[in-house]
Amino acid sequence: MSDELELPDAPATAVGKHEAKSELREFLHTRDDRHRVFPKAALVGAIAGFVAVAFRSLLALADYSRDHLIAWAHGFQAGWLIPASVSAIGAFVALFIVRHWGPESSGSGIPHVESVLRRHRVFRWKRVLATKFVGGVVSIGSGLALGREGPTIQMGGAVGAGTARLLKTSTQERFTLVAAGAGAGLAAAFNAPLAGLIFVLEELQRDFRPMVFGAAFIAAAAADVVSRLFSGQLPVFSAPAYPAPSLSLLPAFAILGVAAGVLGVLFNRGIVASLNGFRSLPGRSKVLAGVAVGAAVGLVGFFSPDLIGSGHGIAEAALSAKLSLAALPLIFAGRFFLTLGSYGTGVPGGIFSPLLALGAILGLLIGDLTGMAFPHAGVLSGAFAVVGMAAYFSAIVRAPLTGIVLIVEMTSSYALSLPLLVACFCAYGVAEATKNLPIYETLLQRELASGKDFAQDHNETVVLELELEPGAPFDGRKVRDLGLPEGVLLVSCRDGHREWLPDANTVLGGHMLVTTVVSEHSPGGIGALRAGFSRADESAEQ
Fold first, then answer.
1. For 125-139, how does the pLDDT look when each residue is reduced to its tens digit (9 = 90+)?
2. What are the beta bridge partners of residue 462?
3. Closest CA to 206 of 234, 231, 175
4. What are phi and psi of 348, to 5 degrees?
5. Are 116 and 448 spatial neighbours (Cβ–Cβ below 8 Å)?
6. Structural domains of the chain ordered from first start
7. Low pLDDT (below 70) residues in the chain
8. C-beta atoms surrounding 488 within 10 Å
9. Could you give the maximum distance between any two Cα atoms of the chain, in Å?
10. pTM beyond 0.70, yes or no
């Protein structure tokens, strides 16, 4: 006699048929969703690609004009006043655009996109698209140490939001298109479609559902096709084809990762300190400080044009090992502080390109030192520069997969895959060990702490999934005691092991994921949830 419990055939067959019907229904609905969303994602990607190409072309023209202006200014006795004045005026104009037309267009714009995707902000896409484009051309074109990828990501998200509004899509489809458009913006900025896809999955959405994956992939591919039609098929960086280094050099790449982790945390803290310093100034003083930074950038550019702007030229020189060892610490320090000052002003501009330039300089420095210590090891310092870009990105953004794929696509350095993995995950581990938040999470917290909440102007019912931070006001309390405003419902709780429907006696705990519904008639609902799920001391620190 068998010890196994056998179920009757008929009920088992009925259950099997029911499950098969449910799976078939889910498959058909998913297929219908794909047929509806994927063509829209392709349209979003193509438009985002055209926007990125136009933005990139104008910045190239601005760089060309600035270099010629600096060369012309050297013919005058006080010629340094010319680039200093131009950069100061550019900073003033960019600040004016941001302050009066679109405050959400300041900085890189990536935290704003993340806050939109988390339902904390509405996306005023027309205003963002216009102010980011014009303000970004003015600020980056005037020489401030900022990059174009943050603006193209935010403008790509704006394209997704605008397309969704014009096509009258559902709320969920709209957010999917916003994320897909943001990934398309990154893909078009760097001719890196896979990096655009992974950035959406790893940083923006953190959602690997087939719908999000497919939409982001199609949008990134479409944007990349448009970008390559106008800018060509070559990688963004002209780097030599370095062979795979010897396995004996992996410890040196690990040391590079550790150095990148330490300096990446320093960069993140410097960005926060710079933003806090500008924020503490009175209204007019902020503008004057921004103008002063612009003037300082122009003055530096008069003596060393490669030190200002996005840093593309410096990065390419590092990748080809054309910078002297003695100059590397000074170049790193100069670019480091120029980037902190430029970003702190609040003008439109990203940090991707500046941090990649810093990573290349750091990598070349470690490579040169390794070559001096081990002259017979066959060290190629330029290969360390390639790996340093990805490692520094991983330490700052805390998205190592995006960093690895981005650098491989931008430099075609496929042979450096193993050193990239070693350095990036060492950098990631060191940065995580310090308990320093990733830069965009830090900036997101600052944005949400500003008090300009989505809840003030949302006009539709929204669904939010929130993680309860340990020590937050709602931690350890029963649902009945939360004091939530009318129109706010908690519909599910998940703690990693199980998922259940909460009731009045459910006790919320740290790191619990709670799905909530907020009615359009509850204007303070999202603010109350955010205050209850987050620690007030962390918001104050940021």
1. 999 999 999 999 999
2. 518
3. 175
4. -65, 130
5. no
6. 25-231 (1.10.3080.10), 247-443 (1.10.3080.10), 453-541 (3.30.70.1450)
7. 1-34, 206-208, 449-460, 496-497, 523, 536-542
8. 18
9. 105
10. yes
